[in-house]
Amino acid sequence: MTPTAETPTSAWAPLRLAAFRALWLAVLASNVGTWMQTVGAQWLLVDQPNAAALVALVQTASMLPVLLLALPAGALADTFDRRRLLIAVQGFLAAVGVLLTALTAADRMPPALLLTLTFALGAGQALTLPAWQALIPELVPRDQLVSAAALGSISVNLARSVGPAVAGVLVAQAGVAVVFAVNAVSFAVFSLALLRWGPRRPGGAMPERFTAALRAGGRYVRHSPVVRRILLRVALFVVPGSALWALLPLVASRRLGLGAGGYGLLLAALGVGAVAGALVLSRLRRALTSNHLLFLAGLLYAAVLLVLAGVPVPALVVAALVPAGLAWMTVISTVNAALQLFLPGWVRARGLSVYQMIFAGGQALGALAWGALGQLTSLVTALTVAGVAMAAGALSVLRWPLRDTRGLNRDPATYWPEPHLTLAAQPRTGPVLVTVSYTVAPGRQAEFVEAMRAVGRSRRRTGAMRWGLFRSGERENGFVEVYQVPSWEEHLRQHGGRLTGADQAADERARALTDGPVRVHHLLPADPD
After folding, report:
1. Confidence class of residue 511 from pLDDT cuts 50, 70 and 90?
2. Who wins on pLDDT, 142 or 290?
3. Distance of CA 120 to CAs 66, 125, 126, 364, Å?
4. Which of 197, 235, 236, 343 qualifies as a cystine partner to 393, CB 3.0-4.6 A?
5. What single-letter DSSP state applies at residue 495?
6. Interior angle at CA 44, CA 39 and CA 50, nearest 5
7. Is 309 exposed, middle or buried (0-12, 13-18, 19+ CB in 10 A)?
8. Residues 297, 303, 308, CA angle at the centre, nearest 5°?
9. Are 374 and 309 within 8 A, CB to CB?
10. Nearest to 157 by CA among 277, 276, 275, 32
C-alpha cells in the first residue's frame, strides 16, 4: 500500500487567511442548518405508516439531486462566475426554507410535499458543492489544500455534531417549524459572506461553452485512471456506510426508545468523533499510508455497524458512534484531499462534481436500499448486512488501492508550439483531426508504443474524442499518432492551459525515443458548413 497525498503541516493554517476564514465560517453555519433540516424532516416522519422507508427517503431526497445534477453543476461552476452563481443559489435555498417553515407551522406538510421540498433543497446543494470546492484553490495556496480539505471535513462534522443536538432540543421545545426557519437563515448568512468577499477577477481564456465543458469534464474522468480509482474507493465506502445515517433515527426510536433529544445525542457522538479525528489526522498520516488509513477506517466502521445491530444499549451505542465518526471523516477527508491535489485547475469543479455525484448518489441509493431491506426484514438484518459489506469493501483496498501520485507534476504546462495555419479556422470549426508523425528505430519501437499509451490518455483527458497510434505503410520505421478533437477552440485549449507537467513528462518520454523531427498537421473539415 502506498501513500497518495502529502502530509499537512497544520489543519488550521488556511484560517489565517481572512477571506477563507469568513467563508468557512459561513459554510459552517449553512452546514449546521442543513443537518438541523435533516433531523427535523426525519422526525416529522417517524410516526408515519411505513416509517422505515419514509425516513430513509429523506436522505434519498437530499442526495439524489447531486447524483442527477452534479456534472451539469460542475460545468456551470467552471463556466460562469462562481461567486454570483453561489449567491443566486443561496437565494433560491432561502426561499425554499421559508416555504418549508410556513407550511410546517400551518400544519400543511404531508410526507409527499416534505420530500418534494427536501429534493428542492438537495438540488440547490448540488449546485453549491462543486462551485464552493472549486473556489478553495483561489482562497488558499496549493501547499495548504490538504489542510483546507481537512477543515472542510471539520466543518461538515462539527455541523453534524452541533446541528442534530440543537435540532433535537428545538424540536422538543419549539417544534420542527423553528428548525426549518433556522436553516433558511443559514443560507442567508452564506449569501451575505459571499457578497462581502471581493475576489480577484481572473483573466486569460474565454470561458468554455456549457455543453462543450460538460463533455470535456466527462472525457477527463473517463480517461483518468487515478480519478476513477478514487471514485471507486468512495463508492465502496459510502454505499454500505449510508446504512448508519439512513437507519439511525429508527435505531434511536425503536431499538433504544429515545426521543428527539436522544437522536440528536447519537448524531452528536458521530460529529464529535469526526472532529476529533480531523484534529489527529495529520499525526495518523505521518504514521500510516493513505491506503492503510482507508483499510483500518473501513474495518472500524464495519465493527460499529455490527454493534448497532447487536447491542440495544444507549450508552454503548453512543460510545460506538464516536469512532464511527472518526472513521467516516478519515475516509472522506483522505479521498477528497487526494482528488483536489490531483485535478488540474481547468477541470477541478467538474472532477469534484463527479466525486460529489458518487458520494451523494451512493448515500441516496444506499439509503433507499437499506431502508427497503429494513422494511422487508428488520433493522438488525439491514445493519448486519451493511457491516459485512463494509468489511468486504475495506479488504478490497488490498486489490484496488489508491494510486501514488506524489511524483506527478500537476502544475499547468504550456509547452506546445503555437499552431500556424494558412487556412482561417473559427473557434467552432470542427471536428479537427491532428496527426503527429514520428520516426523510431527498430530497437526502441516496443518501448515507444508503451510510452505512447500515457500520451494517448493525456490527449483524451484534455480534449480528444478519439486517439490512435499507427504504423506507416510507406515509410520505414514511421509511426503516426492520430487524434480528433471536437473543435478548433477545444484544440487551442490543449495548447493553452489544459496540459500539466505530468502530461509534458509523458510527451517527453515518448519523444526521447524518436529520431529526427516530429511533424504535426492539423486537418480541418473540407466543408465547414
Report:
1. very high
2. 290
3. 11, 9, 10, 15
4. 236
5. I
6. 110
7. buried
8. 125
9. no
10. 275
Q: Alpha carbon of 457 to those of 219, 314, 491, 528: distances in Å?
A: 10, 53, 15, 28
pTM of the entire structure? Answer: 0.78
Instruction: Tell me the β-bridge partners of 482.
Output: 435, 468
**Which set of grid coordinates corresponds to residue 367?**
439509503
**For residues 358 and 71, what is the distance between their CA atoms, to the nearest angstrom?**
11
Section 114-138 average pLDDT: 86
Beta carbons of 429 and 524 less than 8 angstroms apart:
yes
- For the chain, the first-to-last Cα distance in angstroms comes to 54
Whether the bond between 431 and the residue before it is cis, its omega within 30 degrees of 0, is yes
Dist. CA 59–CA 52, nearest whole Å: 12
Radius of gyration of the chain (CA): 25
DSSP-assigned letters across all residues of 243-260: HHHHHHHHIIIIIS---H
According to DSSP, the residues that pair with 438 across neighbouring strands are 479
Q: What is the pLDDT of residues 10-38, one digit of tens each?
A: 667 788 888 888 888 888 888 888 888 88
| CB within 8 Å of 8: residues ≥ 6 apart | 144, 146, 147, 150, 282, 285
Domains of the chain: 15-398 (1.20.1250.20), 432-523 (3.30.70.100)
Could you count the other beta carbons within 10 Å of the beta carbon of residue 102? 15
| Burial tier of 433 (Cβ tally within 10 Å: 0-12, 13-18, 19+) | middle
What does the buried/exposed string (b/e) look like for 15-24 if buried means 16 or more CB atoms within 10 Å of the residue's CB?
bebebbebbb
Q: Which amino acid is at 256?
A: L
Which grid cell sits at 143? 501547499
Instruction: Give the HSE-up count for residue 490: Cα atoms under 13 Å, Cβ half-sphere.
Output: 29
